[in-house]
Amino acid sequence: MDKPLRRLFLFFALLFVALLVGLTYVQVWAAPKLKTNPSNTRAIEQEMRVDRGLIYSADGVELAVNHQEGQDFLRDYPQGDLTSPWLGYNSRQYGRAGIERLYNEELSGQSGLLGITSYWDQLLSKTHQGADLKLTINMKVQRAAAEALGNRKGAVVALNPKTGAVLAMISYPRYDPNKLDSIWQDLNANPDKPLLNRAIQGLYPPGSVFKIIVAGAALQTGTVKPDTKFTDTGSVMAGGFVVHNYGGNTYGDHDFTTAFASSINTTFARVGVQMGADTLAGYAADFGFGKQPPWSLGGATSSFPAPAGMDKAHVAQASYGQGEVLATPLQIALAASAIANGGRIMKPYLVDQVLDRSKKVLQQTKPESWLTPLSAETAAMVRDLMVKVVTSGTGTRAALNGVQVAGKTGTAEIANAEPHAWFAGFAPAADPQVVVAVLVENGGTGGSVAAPIARAVIAAALGL
Amino acid sequence: MSLRNRELVFLIPALILTTLGFALVYTQKSSALSLTSLTYGALFLVLFLIAHIGRRFLAPEADPYLLPVTALLSTLGLVVLYRINESLALKQAMWLVVGLVAFLLVLVFVRDLEVLRRFRYPIGILGLLLLLLTAVLAREVNGARLWVDIGPVHFQPGELGKILLVIFFAAYLVDIREVLTVSTHRVLGVPLPPFRYLAPLLTIWALSMALMIFVKDLGTSLLFFGALLALLYVATGRLFYVLVGLVLFLAGATVLYFIFPHVQARIDVWLHPWRDPSGKGYQIVQSLFALAAGGLFGRGLGQGYLKFPSGKTIIPNLETDFIFSAIGEELGLVGAFGVILLYMIFVHRGFRIAVRARDDFSRLLTTGLVSIFALQAFLIVGGVIKLIPLTGITLPFVSYGGSSIVANFILLALLLRTSDSVARKEKALEQAPRAAGKQQPRKPTIEAA
After folding, report:
1. What ipTM was reported for this prediction?
2. Could you tell me which residues come within 8 angstroms of residue B430 by beta carbon, excluding any fewer than 6 positions away?
3. Model-level pTM greater than 0.90?
4. CB-closest option in A3, A16, A37 to B378
5. What are the phi and psi torsion angles at A438 (to 5°)?
6. How is domain A140-461 classified at the CATH fold level?
């Protein structure tokens, strides 16, 4: 009877080995697929149990906090709609957006940054806690930007040109993330798209703010000098296309500085055509056009047309930011920051630190440079042109008492509608602390509509 | 170290596990340590010390590993149940007491296995009656009729019935063993016993089919049939019986598949759980999700997502059929492997007893009991990991359920009794080496009783 017994034991041993293999398959091999199976709601339910990381601004204002319902932690946004363009939301029903989505691993404590801590928490059976975020946003600047923009469709971006730290970013219309349940349907049906962050996702013809880039190119290539003389007759022919100045103005004899300060289209068309499509396109790319915004928040890619397909008329129009040039407010802010930062563009960033609840810093963002389109000398020349815009040109309404503001207005003409109003600038001109880009959709002229908004934001950023 | 002290030493990890486990789960629930964990630890200590001392006196030469393995399994079950539902753990603790009493009673009253052999027919009839009782009186729970209510107590007579029938068949096969192995016919070169000796096989086949039809319980049916087939194989040494048995069972199951919707439903859910993951496939799909969530090291005791905020368990029948999924989620692959290894140790020790046994009845009885135990563990674990179709049976010593706990403690007692008598006979043979060759160990002449 020994042989059958041994065989029977072997058979049972095989059955148990089959269990071990099957179990390994389910718990290890197939586990990733099972975890992401659409019928598996465990992940969401589990994450509701995490004491999700808090988010606060650079000046210490709480932007995202939790309240507990039973075992679940639910999110509150104390600043309401003020922070929604970049903060996004974290919702059981609607998923996640913005910082809440991009930093979900950190906020829900899965990133490994908190690895050791959460293991001990688990052993000591404490509530699982996520990592906190400290943003670069300054809520005073953010609020000033929101108030200055008001109920006009558009966007404002403010950043520190020396680091790329975003100080404020607002978009209108926006939404209150605390009320998603009641407004979700409207948010998706609304033709004004409140879920869109216009500062990074909106693409607009930049109009004359693009002259910052054209001026930089012209000065750096030696095509012009600040005092190069031009004569305007109110219009200029370029490849069969007639270029006019905004408002039909005629300026007569003037130098390049005046052409910039008064935003004379005919002169820029001439200079642009003289440089040619390739040079213009090259500088546009050097300033970031055609490149993904260099940060995790993403956004639309600003574009400059392909030079091979451009005739003289196209080049002329592109020289004052019309034609097929498209830019996001963030891109315009970054272009202006090259002038403010000695020719170098820093990568923008919104999350300054990842910390644990006891404020121990787990991760610190270090400023990184992105592009260097201009030399420091050229940047300084363009800066002087921009100072002139505010002291005696189209952007006087951006001027502040006691602080020299540099800037450029833009009035982007579009067919059958009011033009988009732009302003890009920085201050103090000698040692820039803040760069601001303002866009108001169909707002009118940059000088009268966008410049005052920029002024208010700069004032808030400089603590005036 | 002597065998007995070895058992005592091996009980220590089980004691630590209980106390630690309860402490962990308790701090989860109320963020403070209380006396509960220590109470459970102390209760466990007293219970298994009594069992240990009882065995020391009643079956001193018995295998020293079976009781600690049982202790580990049942305390793990207790901790997980406490984690799921405190009041269930309390009831289970009470059932553990009852089980240990039954364990001691069996050791006290069954001093000699011959008693069982002598009363094989009453035992067989009682076993059959218990199964019949189930078929007639039971109310239907989850599509199977397993529970019988008598007054406030409801129990599953089938749990005990299985063991009694195994005792009967072990004894019966000893009676007819010689005839079964004698071949008179040869069909295509295969030696066949006279047809009428296929009767035992046909009987157990008919019984298991009846179980499937009337009790609507695929699990018990499979368990019962598998264990008795194993017995038949060990008794005769012929794979022929196993093959005929398997063919018969498959044929019967196929026919039943087309006739009975409850059999069909189980198989269909196994084959296509993802067709209806929130309906018919819900239970098995959630079990897989739970295991996947556990991963390699588990979410930690008390950290799994076992219950909805309402307190209902996410996997229906978590405390009975699906307790292994909860273990897999909270203790991970590592913990689940540990549990399976414990069952393997138990089964291995059981087979050691069977191999060492010198008389047919001890051997067959042990084989039958161990087979029931091994198959039960395999069927339910295989079911919740979707290796095989799900059959609603309990995980021995771990799942919640009084009948199951008591039945398994009786099974353990019978194994230890066999082990003890086997060891005593070996000792006796060593002391009288010359007699060893002549003596037929069939009749225990040197029983210390």
Report:
1. 0.88
2. none
3. no
4. A16
5. -125, 135
6. Beta-lactamase (3.40.710)
